[in-house]
Amino acid sequence: MRSVQTIAFFGASTGVGLAALKHTLLSGDRAIALCRDPSKLAGIVSDDSNLKIVKGDAHDVAAVSKCLQREDGKLVDAVITTIGSKPVMNGIFLTLEDPEVCQKGMKTLLEALDQRRRDGVSGSPYIVACSTTGTSRFGRDYPLALFPVYDYLLRVPAADKKAMEDLLVASQETYTIVRPSRLVDGVTTKQVRVGIEDPQTGPIYKAIGYSISREDSGRWIAQNLVLKRDTVFYNKIASITN
């Protein structure tokens, strides 16, 4: 029987993060979720004694630090970050209200972990960061038909995700970067196909597809990176698609 884990969530109010949070709680693990508006998440995931909701912003070191410690005083077992920003159009490009939302979030997380350790808190959380396909430096990882979408429309969000990935890879933390294909709404139970890329040497094997639901993405993260802790994904990039 595996031990109960405590997982910190950043960006769990909607989408992939919310799906990952729900499936983590179903397993009996504990979760600490940072939210700017706690009532938003409390209205969705209520009456669960294994969930602690902390009010704050993912770019605030003090707020993030509050989510990184277990009840026994050690650092949490894992961190799942799926933060993002509202998309807005700028000419032909899709940009974000905060074009550096992901890289600033990763900088804040790593700084908060460093601060906790300097304060004497022990532990090495496994960090799972949600990125996107279209960010590989080893060639196209999406169908050719979507080239205009990734190379033009999504250029700004992709640059932010790349910067986030680089920070995490260089951090010396144990991590997995998850790159879902184009995210769509809806609850499905479709099989998830998975590719793995080494950030230094390139693809080990590919899984290229058009889209994946946010629900399937969050469920896959919870089942494979939280519950099973499949070490094949340690310090690797996982591309997931239906």
Structure notes:
By secondary structure, this protein is an alpha/beta fold. It has a single domain, classed as NAD(P)-binding Rossmann-like Domain (Rossmann fold). It has seven helices and 13 strands. A nine-stranded mixed beta sheet has the order 3-2-1-4-7-8-13-10-11, sandwiched between helices. A two-stranded antiparallel sheet has the order 5-6. A two-stranded parallel ribbon has the order 9-12. Helix 1 crosses helix 7 and helix 4 runs parallel beside helix 6. It is globular and about 50 Å long.
Strand-helix topology:
Blueprint: E1 6-10, H1 15-26, E2 30-35, H2 38-42, E3 51-55, H3 61-65, E4 78-81, E5 87-90, E6 93-96, H4 101-118, E7 126-130, H5 147-153, H6 155-169, E8 175-180, E9 182-184, E10 193-198, E11 202-205, E12 211-213, H7 214-227, E13 236-241
Q: So what's the CATH class?
A: Alpha Beta
Overall shape: globular
Q: Work out the helicity level.
A: 25-40%
What spatial order of strands do you see in the largest sheet? 3-2-1-4-7-8-13-10-11
Q: Which percent range describes the beta-strand content?
A: 25-35%
The CATH H-level homologous superfamily: NAD(P)-binding Rossmann-like Domain
What descriptors fit this protein?
single chain, 242 residues, alpha/beta, Rossmann fold, nine-stranded mixed β-sheet, two-stranded antiparallel sheet, 7 helices, 13 strands, globular
Quick rundown:
The chain is built from seven helices and 13 strands. The chain has helices at residues 15-26, 38-42, 61-65, 101-118, 147-153, 155-169, 214-227, and strands spanning 6-10, 30-35, 51-55, 78-81, 87-90, 93-96, 126-130, 175-180, 182-184, 193-198, 202-205, 211-213, 236-241.
